[in-house]
Amino acid sequence: MPPASVRVEHPRLPVTAGLADAAVIALCLLALWIVVSGGGRYLVGDVVVSLKSPMLALYAAASIAILRHLRWPRPTFVERVRGLSLAVRARPPLDAAIRAFLVTRPAVLVVGFLAVVTFGIPTSGFVLSREPLTNLPARFDAGWYGGIAIDGYSWDRTFQRQQNIAFFPALPILMRSVGSPLGVGSRTLPDERRMLRALWTGVFVSLAAFFWALLYMGRLGRDLVGAEAAATATLLLAAYPFALFFSAPYSESLFLLAALGAFYHFRREEWLPAAVWGLVLGLTRPNGCFASVALAILALQQVRRGARGGAAAPGPAPQGSSAPVPIGGLAARLSGRLFVAAMPGIGMLLFTVYLHHLTGIWFAWMRSHEAWGRSFHGMAPFVTAYTWLTSDSLIQVITSVPYNSINTAALLFALLLVVPVFRRVGLVWGVFVLVNLLPPIFAGGVLSMGRLTATLFPIFLALGTLIPARSVASWCITFGLGQGLAAALFFTWHELF
Q1: For the segment 160-174, what is each residue's pLDDT rounded down to a tens digit?
Q2: How far apart are the first and last CA of the chain?
Q3: Which of 243, 215, 257 is closest to 108 using CA atoms?
Q4: pTM of the complete model
């Protein structure tokens, strides 16, 4: 045995060996899925694959593992896993993202499943399968996204009823494209099966997008508030009660990813990825276009710093000279930045133009939100809240409108952190929070405020700077308990919005 301080160097494995290790892991996960779900028959392209026993997957995994170790005995699979673990720990953003993801995402689905089999679901919920686990993603707005992924947009010439033109296209497009090999677009399958596959594809897309967003969160947070606070913020975001929607076929994960990606690359003057993420952001949710305001302020800050001869943004210095730039050059730099900053708004306008072609009405998506109770009411939400609080006790108000009370708590949590966001994270990020919070308040009160606050990543960065290290675990446990309650309510068809 070599001393512990001596690092044993193993020959570098070829790509084939790495693929073999990955295949072993994938087959073991497949076997676990078959044990949990019972397996079934799946359409892969035009081929029907029957997966009802885990033994075939386990035999294949064992065979590949034996052949791999006979051909490349060192490093062993265990040594490879240990090496990967050390490599992950050496990258704090990746380490924080993996920990936050693994601790929270599976737990949400487990709690949701247990809540369904324990409490049941009301007859008002739509059921696509008699199996509670298989039917788990079929909840509320997920059906709208799944319907768009399968059949596209439709309009029956009225805004009095809820219609799918209220939902932006980025998530359904991904559900359709990623789920195509599983038969989402196949006309030969029954509609229920196509919808289920679309919804489970949406769950996969949401989980993948959320993990990617956690990586961006760690990297952007490291530049803005430091590595320790960024790691704390990543955990708090994943544990937040309304983070349950990051495990559902909803657009919150994709919105969070696109927002973080746009700002992260914009700060580094990486214009192509910043523009792409900005466009995706504008095509994901109605409030995505508001990010253009914060991005425009960031562009002005960058140009102003450039004029003074400093770095364009905090963090790694961008490429190019730090010398003062002439006025004409500043105008060119600003116009280019503003064009990229406008991409979220351009994404929204592209969808608006498409719906105008479909309906003949400009901003049809905005009009359609009236059927969900979203329209400009001025100060009416505040008057209603004041009337409740002055006529009844707080306990009576919570008892009368429990779901509104939960969303109100989320709104107050975000509003209380607005000032710390401005002070500890910066002007751009405070503006991003405000432009996403204020319009929905005046248009719909506290409707869906919990979901919205889950995507406002600057409030978690600010919170990460405020909480001492000794209190992080307590905050995460408290948030986690709230997320468990929210998951139980959501998956048992209680209107948590």
Answers
A1: 889 999 999 999 999
A2: 60
A3: 243
A4: 0.88
Cα–Cα dist 7/435, whole Å: 53
Q: Which residues of 143-165 are buried (b: 16+ CB within 10 A; e: fewer)?
A: bbbbbbbbeebebeeebeeebbb
CB 205 within 8 A of CB 103: no
Residues 6+ apart with CB under 8 A from 254: 170, 171, 174, 205, 206, 209, 280, 284
Q: Report the alpha-carbon distance of residue 283 to residue 168 in Å, rounded.
A: 6
Question: Both tokens of residue 458?
Answer: 């600057």
Residue pLDDT, tens place only, 230-244: 999 999 999 999 999
Q: Where are the alpha helices (DSSP H) in 90-125?
A: 92-119
25: which 2 tokens?
């892991």
Report the distance separating Cα 299 and Cα 184, nearest Å. Answer: 41
Q: ω before 75 within 30° of 0 (cis)?
A: yes
Q: Which region, left, alpha or beta, applies to residue 152 given φ > 0 means left and ψ of -120 to 50 means alpha?
A: left
Residue 342 DSSP code: T
Question: DSSP 3-state assignment of 31?
Answer: helix
> Could you give the maximum distance between any two Cα atoms of the chain, in Å?
78
Contact between 41 and 49 under an 8 Å Cβ cutoff? The reply is yes
- Between CA 320 and CA 146 the distance in angstroms is 46
DSSP3 helix / strand / coil % (the chain, rounded to 5): 70, 0, 25
